[in-house]
Automatic annotation (TrEMBL):
Gene3D superfamilies: IlvD/EDD C-terminal domain-like
Signal peptide positions (record): none
Entry's family note: Belongs to the IlvD/Edd family.
Pfam families referenced in this protein's UniProt entry, alphabetically: ILV_EDD_C (PF24877), ILVD_EDD_N (PF00920)
Upper classification of the organism: Bacteria, Bacillati, Actinomycetota, Actinomycetes, Kitasatosporales
InterPro entries (UniProt xref): Dihydro-acid_dehy_C (IPR042096), DiOHA_6PGluconate_deHydtase_CS (IPR020558), ILV_EDD_C (IPR056740), ILV_EDD_N (IPR000581), IlvD/EDD_N (IPR037237), Sugar_Degrad_Dehydratases (IPR052352)
Region of interest: Disordered: 1-27
All copies of domain Dihydroxy-acid/6-phosphogluconate dehydratase C-terminal, residue ranges: 382-576
Protein name: L-arabinonate dehydratase
Gene of this entry: araD
Enzyme class, spelled out: lyase
PANTHER family given in the database record: DIHYDROXY-ACID DEHYDRATASE (PTHR43183:SF2), HYPOTHETICAL DIHYDROXYACID DEHYDRATASE (EUROFUNG)-RELATED (PTHR43183)
Domain Dihydroxy-acid/6-phosphogluconate dehydratase N-terminal stretches: 60-371
Keywords per UniProt: 2Fe-2S, Amino-acid biosynthesis, Branched-chain amino acid biosynthesis, Iron, Iron-sulfur, Lyase, Metal-binding
């Protein structure tokens, strides 16, 4: 029985009275606190130093609250308060919460891209959970890279865990228009470059685009990945779409605190939740939402940490069976995440595709997904469409193959101009993003709407970090003619709030000698989304000659974390994880003495 959508936590998330409590000596934290040795004496003494009474923590599940709050992350600026609600739930359930500050990955400020540091947060999460006296964890994130990073690290540590999504910000407003973060930024920036609006209008939009704490309120990467987390079964029901400033968000955080204690007593670990079936359902969800292309990389990486082999081919296979039902920008035309939430949220969305899901798998709150979505309803059929009136007949992403991307590339074709989905045109090649910015308006390039813009050296190693450069800007003269889309190809990513005919994640990347490195201005390129084809129309003999002339670019980093990143990062088609973190193998628990 589900509660109303504005109170989305299913009633059965309350602590059960019939779950056997673990004996103190069965808790993982017992080896730190419960023995008669010198080390346990020291641990208890230092806990007294923190001001805690013995009865507050001894014999109780210790819960790590991993918080990505910081002063420089507007998406997470409310998580300092939400952590208190999590702790409240933990205390009420008979647990002992300890808050850990962890790396904040701010999409809006961190350069060259927080994707460079996703694996750093994943490593930090794993090692904190392994090295401290904790029995379970509540993971607090939401801005694009924080969701996969926290879940990757927690999956590797494999303790009981619940994820608390940061939630979307309030819709933006400007002169009677509802603005979507990111999506309308791109739109009005192009209008400014085209001379349609001026500086005064842009200053007003600057103040009206992002009105509250929370991540992007479009179906960008943040909303896509928190929805994927809910579909995986690692949040309380309905959690992913609650607006960040809604009082329901506080209640959800408290419910997560209540739930994690019970998960510890049940010994339900992340490995019990993150199954192959769960990842298939997460892919189905992302595709049916018309979600971000970034989810492809992150879900493959998350699945790898859980020992599940998820590939690009799985995305393309599932995409052909899943309709897009979420009419949420940028893949949809009208609505934002608050509309999606009050239309039924993810439980309502999933209730429309039960035949496409694995309903008998467990979640953190229920023994089966079937129980979790039982009674869920949709309250607005234009926000979450019926199956017979989809936004698109097939999932919002397509995987491309061809001699330009032998290991694959992706395109969010529902956000592209339909006439460009089958297109052949001459390439205009830019060797890096700075060069592109400097020369895109050069009249000597003679760029027309039929050209194909190609950006290289922007992938995992070349970026570095695979920045969101993939929505290449159009030349000013074309914008002034009313052109708003062109075919663009790169080994970069793009923001989930972006739109356009952008082919992304070309693998292998040009920096390591992938075929993108061999393209020259004037070469003919064919894109055919229906045939899943991306082809460089140059004969093999000429490509072999170019390859013989190609020389590797200079190393991006000579020391530090960047050097480790450059040495260990994998390509986009395998998730951009670090090889030494992605490989299988056991890691022993520390000896606490």
């Amino acid at each position: 029985m589900s509660t109303p959508v504005n109170t989305p936590v299913n009633a059965s998330t309350n602590v059960s009275t019939d779950v056997p409590r673990k004996r103190p000596e069965e808790l993982r934290s017992h080896q730190w606190y419960g023995t008669d040795g010198l080390r346990s004496f020291s641990h208890r003494a230092r806990t007294r130093q923190l001001g805690y009474l013995p009865e507050e923590h001894l014999g109780k599940p210790v819960i790590a609250v991993l918080n990505t709050w910081s002063d420089i992350n507007p998406c997470h600026s409310h998580l300092r308060d939400r952590a208190q609600a999590v702790k409240r739930g933990v205390w009420q359930a008979g647990g002992f919460p300890l808050e850990f500050p962890v790396s904040t990955l701010s999409e809006t400020f961190q350069k060259p891209t927080p994707m460079l540091y996703r694996n750093l947060l994943a490593l930090e999460t794993e090692e904190l959970l392994r090295s401290y006296p904790v029995d379970g964890a509540v993971l607090m994130g939401g801005c694009d890279k924080s969701t996969p990073a926290l879940l990757m690290g927690a999956a590797s540590a494999d303790l009981p865990a619940v994820f608390v999504p940061a939630g979307p910000m309030l819709p933006g407003h400007w002169r009677g228009e509802v603005l979507g973060s990111g999506t309308d930024m791109w739109k009005y920036w192009d209008d400014k470059r085209a001379g349609v609006i001026g500086d005064c209008e842009m200053q007003e939009i600057e103040s009206g685009l992002a009105r509250s704490p929370g991540h992007c309120m479009t179906m960008g990467t943040a909303s896509t990945l928190t929805a994927a987390a809910e579909a995986l079964g690692v949040t309380v029901p309905g959690a992913s779409s609650i607006p960040a400033v809604d009082s329901g968000h506080d209640r959800m955080a408290a419910a997560a605190g209540l739930r994690i204690v019970e998960l510890v007593h049940r010994d339900r670990k992340l490995s019990d939740i993150l199954t192959a079936e769960a990842f298939e359902d997460a892919v189905t969800t992302v595709l049916g939402l018309g979600g971000s292309t970034n989810a492809v990389i992150h879900l493959i990486a998350m699945a790898g940490r859980a020992g599940v082999g998820l590939t690009l081919d799985d995305f393309d296979r599932i995409a052909r069976t899943v309709p897009v039902l979420a009419n949420v920008r940028p893949g949809g035309q009208t609505y934002l995440m608050e509309d999606f939430h009050f239309a039924g949220g993810l439980p309502g969305f999933l209730s429309r595709i039960p035949d496409l899901l694995h309903l008998d798998r467990p979640t953190v709150c229920h023994d089966t997904l079937r129980e979790q979505i039982a009674g869920a309803r949709v309250h607005h059929d234009d926000v979450i469409r019926p199956r017979d009136k989809p936004v698109a007949d097939e999932g919002g992403l397509a995987v491309l193959r061809g001699n330009l991307c032998p290991d694959g590339a992706v395109i969010k074709h529902i956000a592209a101009e339909p006439h460009l989905l089958r297109h052949t045109g001459p390439a205009v090649v830019f060797d890096d993003y700075r060069t592109m910015q400097r020369t895109i308006n050069d009249p000597a390039l003679n760029i027309t709407a039929d050209h194909v813009l190609v950006l290289r050296n922007s992938g995992p190693k070349g970026g570095p970090g695979m920045p969101e450069y993939g929505m290449l800007p159009l030349p000013d003269h074309l914008l002034k003619q009313g052109v708003r889309d062109m075919v663009r190809i790169s080994d970069a990513r793009m923001s989930g709030t972006s739109y356009g005919t952008c082919v992304l994640h070309v693998a292998p990347e040009s920096y390591v000698g992938g075929p993108l490195a061999l393209v020259r201005t004037g070469d003919s390129i064919t894109l055919d989304v229906e045939q899943r084809k991306l082809q460089l129309n140059v004969d093999d003999e000429e490509l072999a000659r170019r390859r013989a002339e190609w020389t590797p670019p200079p190393v991006r980093y000579e020391r530090g974390y960047g050097a480790l990143y450059n040495e260990q990062i994998t390509q986009a088609d395998t998730g951009c994880d670090f090889e030494f973190l992605a490989r299988p193998g056991a890691v022993q628990d520390p000896y606490a003495g």
